[in-house]
Amino acid sequence: MPSPHSLTAIRDEVARIHAVFNADGGRLWRALEAIQDAPHKVLMPHTLLVAPGEATAISSELLANSTLEPDGIAITHRRRDFVARGEKWRFLKVYDEQNQISYDTPPNRFVRHFLRAVINHLRQLQRQVTRLNGRGCAEVRGELARLLARLRALIDTSTVLAQSAPLLVLPLDDLSLNHDPRYRIVLMAYLDLGVA
Question: How many CA atoms lie within 13 A of 40 on its CB side?
Fold first, then answer.
């Protein structure tokens, strides 16, 4: 973090951040936009309680668990699914295991973490410039405002990043983060900038 008394140090830090984002013709910006357009996703199993006719994948274990639900089974005098203790029973609701697409993945959490860390760093620089309030401060404030607006727009327009949970552990061994070129560019920028 630059000294709060040095506009030159703050200007240099803003230039360094700008250089990382605009290196190779804005490769980091393009990677972030590409991630936003086609984020990492995984199929996650979700167990839902549904009407028997809506079930797609019922296992014996899930069927047995369905009997424990208050509205899972009922005694019937017509069609029956099973007999227990001399009574005819039918299923009203059953547990069904369905796969759903999830974007809440370590690579997406990392991108969200990276963007928030850069935004927080820029806000700190903004506060330092406000305290200095001398010659040249308006230019630096303007550059900080432009960078912040563009970064906030990335987060605000991305439902994927908004839905990603906070990052608890840096997933440096994640395959997608290390081998997908888009995510690797973000990882390298994170390491270059050294923001936490």
Answer: 24
User: Do 112 and 33 belong together in one domain?
Assistant: yes
State whether 119 and 91 are in the same domain: no
For residue 64, the one-letter residue type is A
pTM for this model (two decimals)? 0.75
Residues 16 and 110 grouped into a single domain? yes
In this structure, the answer to whether residues 93 and 127 fall within a common structural domain is no
Boundaries of domain holding 150: 7-41+103-193
pLDDT digits (tens), the chain, 196 positions: 445 458 889 999 999 999 999 999 999 999 999 999 999 999 888 888 888 888 888 788 887 888 888 887 777 777 777 788 788 888 888 888 888 888 999 999 999 999 999 999 999 999 999 888 777 788 898 999 999 999 999 888 888 888 888 888 888 889 999 999 999 999 999 999 987 6
Is residue 32 situated within a structural domain? yes
